[in-house]
Design brief:
- It contains 12 helices and 12 strands.
- The chain is α/β, with parallel strands linked by helices.
- It has 2 domains: 167 residues, Response regulator (Rossmann fold, 3-Layer(aba) Sandwich); 150 residues, 3-Layer(aba) Sandwich (Rossmann fold), CATH 3.40.50.
- The protein has a 6-stranded parallel sheet with strand order 2-1-3-4-5-11, sandwiched between helices.
- Helix 4 links the parallel strand 3 and strand 4.
- The protein starts with a helix and ends with a helix.
Length: 361
């Protein structure tokens, strides 16, 4: 029995060390800066690109980086924060499972004198008010929706016969319902199209939870029901857009004439500007997308936390090439003047075939 008890103690000690180092050997006492990257999941291409760039930045700066995947479970992410804090990690880059978790996580981190930067899923204003050592490094989602709408309006301005009377009959593929990006991208999309003088009739709308396979299934059903009744497909990320593209090809919604910029009978628009999306544009499938800059967001988040960890951060410092914001915008949390200097707003960029981003990627 004594041997069994000793084995269990050793096993628990080893497990704790593995968790704290993200599966590798702990570098406690090595003198390295320690930063933990907490991801809500690693299923989406944007999140993979974000994580990959953080890893590159950590390696370049000789940082001991611990990467944890919450698999979209909030309780798991809270446990990860608490365990890492107990293991000595104080500095965090976080893509939270949901916005509300940021308040509880920041309370834990503040109690240990640490710092955190959030991307992709917004922290709440209250979370950033916990202390000046908490940051938001991301892109305003309403603007992303506006830029997608601008690309759609540009298409129909050039091809007016495809939207008689400036009437758009849209299939809209949402991300996870209630997700800040889903809510704000949709609002920005519809507001901008209205401002450009278009009447939008949503023929069909549902969530595909950011997943290409779900978007493909939804699109198959919609094509069966509304084959000749829609003239545009807008998806809230590129993965879902490419799932819709594949469905349209499978269902024969293709043409030989690509003079309008696509071989599909109806243009499809995404958001993210992933490598797969750019490749699809080069094949004249996906019409256009909007760059959500995973490199820019991750660079800003990593740099401001690295500055905190090395004692070089001062309010107003730029981070990863992005200046600290100075003027509140309409979208939370950067709409609150009390924490605007803690926000790093990485711009979205519209990407069509005339854009510099498309030409260089």
């Amino acid at each position: 029995m004594k041997k069994i008890a000793l084995f269990l103690v050793v096993l628990l000690a080893v497990s704790s060390a593995v968790f704290a180092s993200g599966g590798g050997q702990s570098s406690a006492g090595s003198g390295k800066v320690q930063i933990a990257l907490l991801m809500r999941n690693m299923d989406e291409q944007f999140l993979k690109d974000y994580s990959d760039n953080i890893k590159k930045l950590a390696a370049a700066n000789n940082v001991d980086l611990n990467v944890q995947d919450a698999r979209s479970d909030g309780a798991t992410q809270l446990t990860q924060v608490q365990t890492l804090l107990n293991q000595g990690y104080k500095y965090f880059v976080i893509i939270p499972v949901v916005s509300e978790l940021s308040e509880q996580m920041n309370a834990f981190i503040q109690a240990k004198g640490g710092a955190a930067a959030y991307s992709n899923i917004q922290p709440t204003v209250k979370a950033l008010q916990v202390g000046k050592n908490f940051f938001y490094a991301s892109s305003p989602e309403f603007v992303g929706g506006r830029y997608q709408a601008g690309l759609i309006a540009d298409y129909f301005d050039k091809n007016a016969a495809k939207a008689p009377g400036k009437n758009i009959n849209m299939i809209l593929i949402n991300g996870q319902i209630g997700h800040p990006a889903q809510v704000n991208r949709r609002a920005g999309l519809l507001a901008e199209l209205q401002s450009r003088g278009y009447n939008v009739n949503i023929i069909a709308e549902d969530t595909a939870n950011w997943a290409p396979d779900q978007a493909n299934e939804k699109m198959n059903a919609w094509i069966a029901s509304f084959r000749d009744k829609f003239n545009v497909v807008a998806a809230q990320n590129d993965g879902m857009a490419l799932g819709a593209v594949q469905s349209m090809i499978q269902n024969g919604l293709v043409k030989d004439d690509t003079s309008d910029g696509t071989r599909l009978t109806v243009p499809v628009f995404g958001i993210d500007a992933t490598a797969d999306a750019i490749a699809s544009m080069k094949r004249n499938e996906l019409y256009a997308t909007v760059l959500q800059d995973a490199v820019g967001q991750s660079a800003a988040a990593f740099d401001v936390i690295y500055q905190c960890a090395t004692g070089t951060y001062k309010p107003g410092n730029a981070a990863g090439g992005t200046p600290a914001a100075t003027t509140p915008i309409t979208e939370a949390p950067a709409n609150d003047a009390s924490i605007i200097g803690q926000c790093y707003l990485v711009p979205f960029v519209p990407v069509d075939k005339a854009s510099d981003y498309f030409k260089t990627h």
